[in-house]
Automatic annotation (TrEMBL):
EC number: 1.3.1.98
Protein name as annotated: UDP-N-acetylenolpyruvoylglucosamine reductase
Native organism: Niastella koreensis (strain DSM 17620 / KACC 11465 / NBRC 106392 / GR20-10)
UniProt function note: Cell wall formation.
Residue ranges of every copy of the FAD-binding PCMH-type domain listed in the record: 17-189
Taxonomic path: Bacteria, Pseudomonadati, Bacteroidota, Chitinophagia, Chitinophagales
Gene designation per UniProt: murB
Length: 339
């Protein structure tokens, strides 16, 4: 059986590099190990905290309970037909490793999601997305372990209630399930999505003549590395805030006052605004207080320059949210999970 350790530092397990300690800690690589660890939880009064890649989490304080690191491996084709391939992937696999696997096999669908940090298990939980593509578009099903009744359940797309960076696992079933594996539906014939962001300009700069999923992936990687800091070099959790949506009337009012405001129409008739633009226009880009700051190239990213506490980062985010609301009348929401 996997041993439960005590008083384990979690700095290396969260990309913001917050230096906190878990009272109890263990990693698991199978549903059987997970079940045993839950049975032997030394702090039964506190539900275990499940940790994946740690790329979308903000620890405000030390964790008094049990932290379980999801390291379930696996990449396998479970079925295929003339047009599609279905790949089952362990929740502990690194997301970009899975993307590279698909690219190597020439299977399309996730190339726009290249270089997103974190593990596979977080992809449906967050409904991760980038450059015009969300995980729900390639999601087939997942298996998840219920922490209370200790049974494995299968979730189809309709069960997950996917929304913008949302699913049932973030709200309705928060802290109730552990995602074990995810099956994705990839296309053998690519349908390219290059209209979002700067992908077309980057492909042109790269001199791409014949469009491939590998070229789209490389364009996305180039853009991300030019705009976003490497968590291995400076602590960050990627986009800290969601892009907010507003009613058309408010957008039109803001457009008159701020002609350069960035907005995209949603299918529900609202307008999605660029949170990074709002934050930058509120004067926060490049701001630093102690070791907590706003990245100099991307205002959507909060950074830890070395020794910021989780509370430092949280307090900075609160001040930014109030500032944006005071200036634009728009409510920002944190994308990261605050613990």
């Amino acid at each position: 059986m996997t041993q439960i350790q005590q008083n384990i530092p979690l700095r290396q397990y969260n990309t913001l590099g917050i230096d906190i300690v878990a009272r109890f800690f263990a990693a698991f690589t199978s549903v059987d190990e997970l079940g045993e660890l839950i049975e032997n939880n030394p702090n039964t009064g506190i539900a275990p905290l499940i940790l994946g890649g740690g790329s979308n989490i903000l620890f405000k304080d030390h964790v008094n309970g049990l932290v379980l690191k999801n390291d379930i491996p696996g990449l396998s084709v479970v079925k295929e037909d003339a047009d599609r391939v279905y790949v089952k992937t362990g929740a502990g696999e690194v997301w970009h490793k899975f993307v590279q696997f698909c690219l190597h096999q020439n299977w399309a669908g996730v190339e726009n999601l290249s270089l997103i940090p974190g593990c596979v298990g977080a992809s449906p939980m967050q409904n991760i997305g980038a450059y015009g593509v969300e995980i729900k578009e390639v999601f087939e099903e997942l298996e998840a372990f219920h922490l209370h009744d200790k049974k494995v359940y299968v979730f189809k797309a309709s069960d997950c209630a996917f929304g913008y960076r949302e699913s049932v696992f973030k709200r309705k079933y928060r802290n109730q399930f552990v995602i074990l594996n995810v099956t994705y539906r990839l296309n053998k014939k690519p349908v390219f999505n290059t209209s979002y962001g700067a992908i077309e300009q980057e492909l042109e700069r790269m001199g791409v003549q014949d469009l491939t999923i590998q070229a789209v992936s490389q364009a996305v990687i180039n853009i991300r590395t030019s705009k976003l800091p490497d968590p291995a070099k400076i602590g960050n959790a990627g986009s800290f805030f969601k892009n907010p949506s507003v009613v058309v009337a408010l957008y039109e009012q803001l457009k008159k006052q701020y002609p350069h405001i960035v907005g995209y129409p949603n299918t529900d008739g609202t307008i999605k605004l660029a949170a990074g633009w709002l934050i930058e226009q509120s004067g926060w880009k490049g701001y630093r207080h102690g070791d907590a700051g706003v990245h100099e190239r991307q205002a959507l990213v909060l950074v830890n320059y070395g020794h910021a506490t989780g509370q430092d980062i949280y307090d900075l985010s609160s001040v930014i949210m109030k500032s944006v609301h005071d200036k634009f009348g728009v409510e920002l929401e944190r994308e990261v999970n605050v613990v």
